[in-house]
Amino acid sequence: MTPSAAAMAPASVGLSPLADRDLETLLLIRHFELALLDLFSQGKLNGTTHTCLGQEYIPVALYPLLDDGDFIFSNHRGHGHYLARFRDPHGLLAEIMGRTGAVCHGVGGSQHIFRDRYLSTGVQGQSLPVAAGVALHLKRAEPGRVAVVHIGDGTWGEGAVYEALNMAQLWGLPLLVVVENNGIAQSTPVHLQMAGSVAARASAFGVLHNRLTSIDVNELRQKLAGLVARLHERPRPAVVEFITHRVGPHSKGDDSRSPEALREAADSDWYSRYARAYPEQLRSADDRMRERVARIVREVAERPISRWDAR
Question: Under CATH, which number does the domain 19-301 receive?
Answer without folding.
Answer: 3.40.50.970
